[in-house]
Amino acid sequence: MPSSVGRVVGKNAEQWRWVLYVALAIVGGLLTFVGARAQQKATDDATFRKLIDSLCVAWSTGNAEAPAKFYAKDSGLVFYDVAPFAYHGWKEFHDGVKKEFLDNASEIKLTAGKDLKVTRRGTVAWTIVPMHLMEKSKNGKTTEMDLRYTGIWEKRGAGWLLVHDHLSAPAAEN
Questions:
Q1: 2-168 — its CATH code?
Q2: Are 149 and 167 in contact (CB under 8 A)?
Q3: How many of the other CB atoms lie within 10 Å of CB of 167?
Q4: CA-CA distances (angstroms) from residue 61 to 103, 106, 141?
């Protein structure tokens, strides 16, 4: 009887050892996943910070061609701006912003704030960030305004393109 008890205890210890190994493997896998996710988030934040800052520099040139490389050219896309309400497709957006805004400006400076938020789900990401716009019109008037910006980006090939953006200004306080 004592030897059979020893075998049962040894067998139970071996089973518990395997349970421990499996549990450690699961914990290790979860830690690897969490670490990889954190690393992806840091990479995404840096990628989109660079994209947003470059987009602002492009719009600040005052040339509607400069930001074109950041936008998808699909005809069914919609872009919301401060005025007018919406543009349908890149061509309408390009032509409308040029006519309504850029043609009347002698200088433009668009800057993104520090509070950039990036959320990514596979090949789609959205960014939100406050922006500041300074515009000197050709008649000498300077206008400054704080803006809210949301960009919807899609990974196409090796790069990211805007498939929607929404620029708005807070309502004036009374």
A1: 3.10.450.50
A2: yes
A3: 19
A4: 12, 10, 18
Q: How far apart are CA 86 and CA 78, in angstroms?
A: 7
Instruction: Tell me if 95 sits within 8 A of 84, measured CB to CB.
Output: no
pTM of the entire structure? Answer: 0.75
> What is the per-residue pLDDT for 10?
63
Distances (CA, A) of 171 to 35, 47, 146: 42, 31, 11
Instruction: Quote the CA–CA distance of 56 and 51 in Å, as a whole number.
Output: 9
Considering only the C-alpha atoms of the chain, give the largest distance between any 2 of them, rounded to a whole number of Å.
Answer: 105
Instruction: State residue 36's pLDDT score.
Output: 46
- Contact in structure between 121 and 81 (CB atoms under 8 Å): no
% helix, strand, coil for the chain, step of 5: 45, 35, 20
Q: Is 157 left (phi over 0), alpha (psi -120 to 50) or beta?
A: left
